[in-house]
Amino acid sequence: MAVLVQGSVLQVCITLALYVKISDPVCLFQGIKVNYHNMNVLRKMGGYFSQHCLSETTDFRFPMEITKVTQENVTMIIYKFLQQIFQLFSKNLPLGAWNTSNIEKFQNGIYHQIEELEICLSEEQSKARNLFQTWILKSTIFSMKKYFRRITNFLKDKQYSLCSWEAVQLELRRSLIIFDRLMKKHVS
Question: pTM here?
Answer without folding.
Answer: 0.77
